[in-house]
Fold this sequence. Notes:
CATH class of the largest domain: Alpha Beta
Number of strands: 35
GO molecular function: cysteine-type endopeptidase activity
CATH topology of the largest domain: Rossmann fold
Strand order of the largest sheet: 2-1-3-7-10-13-31
Shape: globular
Structural class: alpha+beta
Organism: Candolleomyces aberdarensis
Amino acid sequence: MDPSSTYALVIGINEYQCPDYPVLNAAVNDADAVDGYLKTTLNIPEENIISIRNTQASRQGILDGFQELENVATNGKQPCIIIFYAGHGARTERPLQWQDWAPESEFVEMLCPFDIGTERKDGEGVIEGIPDRTVCYLLNRLSIKRGNNITLILDCCSSAGLNRGSGQETARTILNPPPLSGKADLHVAIPEELTKQDESTSTRGIRPSPGFGGKFQDSHVLLAACGREQLAYEKDGRGMFTTALLSTLEGVKLQTTTYASLMDRLRMPAKQTPHCEGSYMDRPLFDRGEMRSDPSFISGKRFKKDGKGELVVSIDAGIAQGITLGELFSIHEDNLFETASRPNESIGILRAVTVDSFNTSLGHPPGYRKAKIPRNFYARRIDWRNDPPKVYCEDRTWLESVFPQNSTQQIDIVGNPADAALRLVRDGNQVHFHRGDPSLNQYIPERFSHSFECITTADIQRIIRAWQHFNYHLNRRGKNEFAQVRMELHYLELIDLEDSESSYEPENYRPKGENLLAKEPSEVRVPEADVEKPIGVTLYNDSDIPIYPYLFYFDPNNLTITPWFTAPHGAGLGDVDAPLPPHSKLPVGYANGATYPWQFSFEDDRDKDIGFFKLFLSASPANFSCIAQTESPFKEISTRGEDIPKDTMQAAQVEQLDKLDKDSWGVKAATIIQLRE
């Protein structure tokens, strides 16, 4: 991070002009502390920091602050931008005109400026709060003009209606904010560039479609003090979240600590759970460089059980993530991708000694030296025990040399090519990989489109390990059926704003036509490359319990597993918000679903292809990010997915949701056949 090209907007509000709203004691102190961290620790020049407090932080003052930030952040091609807000937050009913923005919720969240609730000078009602939608538009515009290395930090309540704290703790919430008129965004200019395609985010066989629908998570990373049903507390003259955040930031290396790993290190009480959201949670802090975290690393902690006594070393993955008893893990201090210039060296080897649904306890295996394990660490699987793949090569001796008997990575070498799931063909100095799945080969070539000359043993092992990871997670079943959760896939249509009363609203999408997942397999018509035909998913929870969904796209052409939607990343002892509350729906790729609409595409002259959506579900927060395989083992970008067994379970065997507990998890899958239109 270059301090000279880092800019900040720091807002702190203790005082509120309207006498109906309580004053705070610590918001300004928090803003001052953040100012100090930016200047002293990050060495950001004072002229790069816009600081507004109390009366300066009126509604117009905050909006002007965003505009000033946009104007000053011009030094460098990719400036780093940090926005901090401490003050009251509130939740209010969604205006009727915003139906297409938040179709699944009756409420929107908002920041509370100094003058909220006071009379407007023009006599047209009272001054409103700044809703999440307005903040989203402002950040979209900022990211278009100055890049998406933006961090938004909010130390305020995300919801109202609960108690306001007791004793020495004060909650940062306004319980009765003025209602939104629906015209809160009228003054926010959305540039034409917002509707243009961002090619840098294209992902293999499915790519983002243009428009507002999913820009939210791509424009910035959000660090929020608490969930929507919690309060953000201040105590002893400081906000609890800001205090914990700055303390943790002072103790980590920014170059090797990602936003997600920062949250793993935060210490917070169960009553207040900080949330982290955004497409770039896997970036190092305040950095837009090429370095990203490797999803194969699983976060872990060393702690004393019940705060005392027995020392426990545990990772955030278990049966639901495919961990089995006795597996070996390589332990590392960070979770960034390894490069030639920056190796991510192992500090020791541990073994799985107990495996629960979402957690695994590790211990020192015999034959390996004991290593000192840090409080926070990352574990990578090094001996996959699930279903060794059946591999054939005509040159069996050569294949046995690649996978010797003492190797931690085992395969089942077969003598008949018809029995093999994967065939390796040596052609002079080249090695080709062939899949042995007829259900796939009718849609995509049997041979992977990648071949290698002078390929190393490590490369072959890496490719087969990735192939095994891909197929295992694609084909496995869940513990529970989650019969009252369903998934629909629709083409999306652009909302015609000219025919809408809310014509000031930027572009958005809504579903149209029939559910494309009504039959298995499903068919999607793929237009020519220059024609847009976006798709979106809607998840429905018809049960009485909250559900945590994690949606992935499996592409068998390059063995990638790409996350489309995942639950927020939480910190501390409490649970993050469930994206699917009881009797609710969640848009993915449209409305305020916080992800892009996506579109299938052909990258060659083929007329058909195949891919898979797989939805992992849990009844409590879980870490399914380790399932992702965002980099192809072939180190190239190609296109699309693989086949899933048909569900033959009879209705009488389906487990009812009222039997689910916190350890329940399950999967739902959809095969997508893509045909050229």
